[in-house]
């Protein structure tokens, strides 16, 4: 399996540290507002990477944080006159709801910054003890020049970066490229007690600490949007490797931006749609399908036209699946096998399944993987009809449903019968029996059975349960 590694700017064979296991960390959202669909891109993309790795048999430990203390959260809390914790809690809940809607599975662990402050204080202290950090008047800075590998992820050079940046007279930094690990409390802000006084952590330290705590000092994959390469991920490497003395992450994966009119979608630019706004217009499965229709390292332009075309494509797969299900469930006489054409069709199915896997093995090329699913749909539409054998229909259904499942695409909605609908059908069945219309009564029983509802006729009346 090949993975594009930002650290070396090339596709590399994926070899995890421990056989059969993957330790993966994905930088999560800052919860100061509803997430927008740009934030949804890394969620969907890396959830798909996780699903594929699991499909390949890896045991994936997937950690993704919520940044729940930060300037923007504090600003919003002041604006609304509520606590920062209330803001963070509200938007964390909303983000989890959106993730569920997009069929993004919960991480193995979703740590929150505010619950990991002790670990951050410990790592900052280690960095001070090792000479990689220093304190000035309650602020702790990272001594960037001391870390020899600084710039290895982004390809930036400290001298180029600091050229032109002057240290202000009142600046406490030794070097303009030093960054904050801990900042002193300001009036009205949430704060924690530390060896450097009351204060709160800088942003970058939380990911180094959480990754280390939940996954260990060296991990396989660290991921996020490409805007995080510099400075966030560069700083994470500096913190983790200086503190732990071992390589931090072997593979760095970054998704390209979701754009609108070729500009990055962002809250600050005001050109964004929240996931909730999109959910009011389209099922979120369509959003997921749209995101995966492009390779994750290609910029993707959002438009209504592209969403409509994603909706139509998803519908085509779903129609094929529902036709197959209908044929499978219908009572028409099935010829057991129709010889050589079935053999040919079977090998075509296998070939396309391999094509899907080859696309995913090539740095998770979901665009080509979806194309392979369409070829299966096309082959099924022309090969399968009411005389096809149950085996071949089921094989086709299993293939389409499982490949879609690897992408987190639900291509068959299970019809959930509501209790009221079940009772109504039972009453109709009782009425049919009274009229001695046993054919209709049996039909209703069969219909319910297919939907997993089992009827039991007792002396007290009809009882039912879900199978
Ligand atoms: P934030 O809440 O801004 O820290 O962002 C959370 C995640 O969303 C990070 O991985 C960002 O890189 C990613 N992200 C933000 N905006 C976009 C965008 N327009 N396209 C793709 N990813 C984005
Ligand atoms: Zn991070």
Textual characterization of the structure:
The protein folds into 3 domains: 2-255, HUPs (Rossmann fold, 3-Layer(aba) Sandwich); 303-406, Anticodon-binding domain of a subclass of class I aminoacyl-tRNA synthetases (Four Helix Bundle (Hemerythrin (Met), subunit A)), CATH 1.20.120.640; 419-466. 47% of the residues lie in helices and 15% in strands. The model has no long low-confidence stretch (mean pLDDT 94). The protein is elongated, with a radius of gyration of 27 Å. The longest helix has 26 residues, at 304-329. It has helices at 37-55, 71-80, 84-101, 117-129, 158-162, 205-215, 229-244, 275-279, 284-292, 304-329, 339-361, 366-383, 390-406, 419-434, 438-450, and strands spanning 2-5, 10-13, 21-26, 59-64, 133-136, 139-142, 179-184, 199-201, 219-225, 249-255, 258-260, 263-264, 300-301, 453-458, 461-466. A 4-stranded parallel β-sheet has the order 4-3-9-10, sandwiched between helices. Strands 5-6-7-8 form a 4-stranded antiparallel β-sheet, covered by helices on one side. It is built from 15 helices and 15 strands. Helix 4 packs across helix 6, helix 6 (205-215) packs across helix 7 and helix 9 packs across helix 10 (304-329). Strand 1 and strand 2 form a beta hairpin. The protein has 467 residues and is of the alpha/beta class. Residues 27, 207, 232 line the site of zinc ion.
